[in-house]
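Narrative progress, year one. The postdoctoral researcher (J.K.) led the effort to move from monomer predictions toward full complexes, under supervision of the PI. The following entry was the first complex the group processed end to end, covering 915 residues in total.
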Amino acid sequence: MGFVVEVLRGQAQVDFVPNALTGVVFSAGLCAAGWEFGLYGLAGTAAGTASARLLGVDRDRITAGLEGFNACLVAVGCAVLLGARHLSTALLALAAAALVTVLTAAVARLLATWQLPTFTLPFCMTASALTIAAPGFRRVWHEDAGPAALPRAADGPVSLTFTDLWHGFFANIGQIFFMPQWYVGLIFLLGLFLAGRRAGALACVGSLVGLLTAWALGTPAEQVAEGVAGYNAVLVTMALCGVVLVADAWSLAYAVAGAVAATFLRPALAALFAPSGGHAFTWPFVLVALVFLAAAPVFPRLRRV
Amino acid sequence: MGFVVEVLRGQAQVDFVPNALTGVVFSAGLCAAGWEFGLYGLAGTAAGTASARLLGVDRDRITAGLEGFNACLVAVGCAVLLGARHLSTALLALAAAALVTVLTAAVARLLATWQLPTFTLPFCMTASALTIAAPGFRRVWHEDAGPAALPRAADGPVSLTFTDLWHGFFANIGQIFFMPQWYVGLIFLLGLFLAGRRAGALACVGSLVGLLTAWALGTPAEQVAEGVAGYNAVLVTMALCGVVLVADAWSLAYAVAGAVAATFLRPALAALFAPSGGHAFTWPFVLVALVFLAAAPVFPRLRRV
Amino acid sequence: MGFVVEVLRGQAQVDFVPNALTGVVFSAGLCAAGWEFGLYGLAGTAAGTASARLLGVDRDRITAGLEGFNACLVAVGCAVLLGARHLSTALLALAAAALVTVLTAAVARLLATWQLPTFTLPFCMTASALTIAAPGFRRVWHEDAGPAALPRAADGPVSLTFTDLWHGFFANIGQIFFMPQWYVGLIFLLGLFLAGRRAGALACVGSLVGLLTAWALGTPAEQVAEGVAGYNAVLVTMALCGVVLVADAWSLAYAVAGAVAATFLRPALAALFAPSGGHAFTWPFVLVALVFLAAAPVFPRLRRV
């Protein structure tokens, strides 16, 4: 029973919330996009949590779900990028979810030197390694060609319709779990409000900042509507206001600046990985959040929780 | 008035010199290449210095101009790479110059663990992110195609004329601010001699080492004449002899070895970034200088200032 | 005489063994692949060891051969990748082998914060910089075209013959020194057994894990037979079981997990470097070994030597 709660909390920790009920709603959201995704998410979180128990990781981290969220994202990422219905993908997702425990321990120890949390850095590293290595293995990669390509300048219309905007508003929250459907994002948002009004409100603020920044910079409308442009803004806003820094006007302004930076940074990461066949994942969020938190002690106006 | 001096010192700190008069000469040099570049440089330094004041950064750093030089380079880099006469470039340059304050604070805190200075690492990170992300935004990027391309083997003549040599000697100093004109480099060199004979002499030594290394390795003559081959050697020589290590024969030899390494490293960084559309900036200088300084305490012959 | 022993130990330290006799056997193995490689290996190790003496590095490190193995690999790598019979390659190999001393000192100091060893990280950084920069210099690069190319999905047969398997078993050990010939790997393995039964046995275990993982994932048969698929598994197994962690059942299981991860990671590193013209070298080993060691203190079942 304790294990089930840990796994559900692990799902919810993707959005910084140690709440099992939110984890149930997140699973429902994944199933709304496809039952395989719901299954991969739960199985990945379970594999990560179980391997943390086996290796003897500190119980407090496991109980809070902190050993599950990176594994959850790795498993769902495998399903989305390598095809959920291959046996090879399922085995790889389980193995990777277990290995993420080691990566989390390593990254946590290195970053502890500066009192920084890992966020989804272990997921980003694992998912990048997986997707870039995959085309090199014939039993893992089931497409004819690999995904490597030189990045090109954006084209396509940039003026946004009302539909683009409200789809994008919810899809920004769905894309945190790789899902472009607006209704999946809406279910995730309900889960966040279940965990507390602040979590839900900050996700909304982040999504709006992401939309506005993407529009101002001239992001192609399709990327805005599918949430590709704005998911990092949601994560940065939630991470910088309330999770590590005390939630006040200063940290909110700081979080909004970070959300703008992460929205700008996303195509840079996409272009950096494109020639090798990789993806941006949540690298923009992780890099911006770590930089802004590492800098925080230098600015006396920002207070740590 | 204090703010004006801080901004001018910030300009001069690009070459490690906290001297407002040198900052005036550097501005004149930028204006000789184009008045827009002079304006972007001053505005960027001012934005960086102002945001450091607003966020409450330690006064000593601001007074010494240490919160201005990365912002200066970011703004001039925007003007050179995105087109100085677009409103989008101006707004982006100001925003980026302000954000560099956060990045500087973060990098300074991380590197303080090993008593290492930031050098232009915050500039390199920001400028790389900006130029690689830019083609992804239609209101930021005003060309038809993006700059991404696979690197090719060097071609073109490698034998140097006397004109190549003396142009290159000054252009090595001009390219620190992205400027290939020999007379711009000459103005910068005058500014350095204004700050002190040692700063000017070290810049000359570094430029000569860069020229000689580039010739010995067979660098295409055009790159030598425009200072592309040697600007990192100038920066490494100034940084390793006198700024952090006591200036003596040992640190000079160490600096020359570093200058050779940085000259070699430049095409590696260019090739690493080329497929994503990025540039080498001063990454070779930053990486070599940080490695050589991190190693210095292991070698008893080198003494820290 | 002391210097000769230090150089031979430096050769042997490529495989974590401070044994001069093993160094002699390794040299013989290199000569079996080509006398130039044997010469480059010895000259590189000597240059690295000598520059460490000149700069005044701690005597214990030099005596144990720890200042030689990265330089050895850098020099052999130059011979393999730039052509052993060019004067430019010989000069570059010596200069790079000397510079590796500085890089080793820097990396050792940074990683000491977490009590982590450098492994072959200085070699990987130097060799990557060298091979990616080389095509930019006409007196260094003697081919018409550079090596940069977008990575493609694996093709070719993946079913392994018995010949592929036993060739691969030995070649996994030979590829640590860039050599694809099975008999070179066999000589290296004899050298390891000379140093002790455990070193030899662990190399065999690592090679088997590499073979099995490569087969299970569907690695092209040619890569398996030439040892490209499995050399990182050999290194990881030796590094994680006995060198830093106490050799017991737990650290062996941990090492095997690491060997699987490194075998998976290899094509990712190859794809990351391919568009710039670089190679995977022992990056997969270094990254996996550092991550697994950084994580080790979190797991109470693993004990440090």
